[in-house]
Design a protein that fits this description.
The structure is a single chain. With about 220 residues, this protein is an alpha+beta fold. It folds into two domains: about 40 residues, no CATH class; about 170 residues, Jelly Rolls (Sandwich), CATH 2.60.120. Helices cover about 25% and strands about 40% of the residues.
Amino acid sequence: MKYKKSKLLLLGCLLLAVSQMCSAGIIAYTDRISWENALTGSIVEESFNGISKYDFSLGSNSAGLLDINISGDSHGSNRIEDIANSSLDIDGSNYYLGNVRNGSPSTYSELAFGTDIYTFGADWVGVVGYGNLVATIGSVDINFTDYFSGKYDAGFLGFISDESFSSIFFSTESVTTNEAFGMDNVAFSVSSVPEPGSLLLMLVPLGILIARRNRLNNLHT
């Protein structure tokens, strides 16, 4: 009887774990290695080092392997920046200097990948402290205040989605203050993560092994 109860409890936990992953939609990672280990397929990277410094205009701006679309009332000093005039560089090389604002005048930035992707990650600095950066993937808003604590707090933040997306839209929490930030070493992958059903198929055998071990332990006690 104990064995049956433990088996049912284990299966229930497995189903609950899968359902939580399904409902989550987007999983965030603050460690680049952990994010890369969770991916399938190859990763495409853009460091902006092969792009000369230039100011963006309203509309589409080429940034190597992706386009950066600027919209709103003003272009907001968005540009590819070099280390010679840098306050938000991450690793001593060229980077994207973003500047967005939800208000008047408004400035919005959108990364356009030109294809459907499932994963995205980058190194960031300066994403909170004034207007507080918000990234929108599909219908999901991601507040950078959940992952960064101060204006010059720097680090990696990446995402894995269970649905494909082709762009990421940036705005701010504040409607009165802008947020200038640095983004570098962008990476993304077009390969999808395992479907929830496939994940369950991988987890169930593990659960059965654990249940069998528990049964053997009970027989010897």
